[in-house]
């Protein structure tokens, strides 16, 4: 029974690490496309992202199934880490490397996702500023001016009829 848990967890972690690696590759290509403003490449990456999402969903379903089976056998079922910690020493050590690697990659994935989000936000900000320049002809009205106090601010309160 214990050997089955070790092989089940090792198989799950191997699949998870593979999906994490593929996700890192997609995020890297997406960052490059965002930086190059390559909209055609971004559109192509949507298919790759869909594939990665499907694989991640399968990993999540497999994780839930493993934890459900562990609960049924009276083993820790709150996380894969706690489940692997319940295995005997040698078997636990065999999985420790994969668990540590998966945890590190998850952290790296969060970092890459944040970088892509910041890049996208900066691009949107830049584009909105360009649109504002185009719309106003490059001449913005000052927020505060001396010529017309009523239009400078507080017009509803300070307006004299």
Describe the structure in your own words.
The protein is mainly α. The protein has one domain. 81% of the residues lie in helices and 0% in strands. The protein has 6 helices and no strands. The protein has helices at 2-36, 39-72, 80-85, 89-136, 149-152, 155-158. Helix 1 (2-36) runs antiparallel to helix 2 and helix 1 runs parallel beside helix 4 (89-136). The longest helix is centred in the last third of the chain and has 48 residues, at 89-136. The radius of gyration is 27 Å and the shape is elongated.
Radius of gyration, in angstroms, nearest whole number = 27 Å
Cα-to-Cα separation, first versus last residue: 89 Å
Number of beta-strand segments: 0
- The overall average pLDDT, rounded, is 86
Query: What is the strand content?
Result: under 5%
Count of helix runs: 6
Report the sheet with the most strands, covering strand number, pairing sense and barrel closure: none
Q: Class by helix and strand content?
A: mainly alpha
Which consecutive residue ranges, at least 5 long each, have pLDDT under 50? none
Offer a quick outline of the entry:
The chain is mostly helical and 161 residues long.
Question: What is this structure's SSE topology?
Answer:
Elements: H1 2-36, H2 39-72, H3 80-85, H4 89-136, H5 149-152, H6 155-158
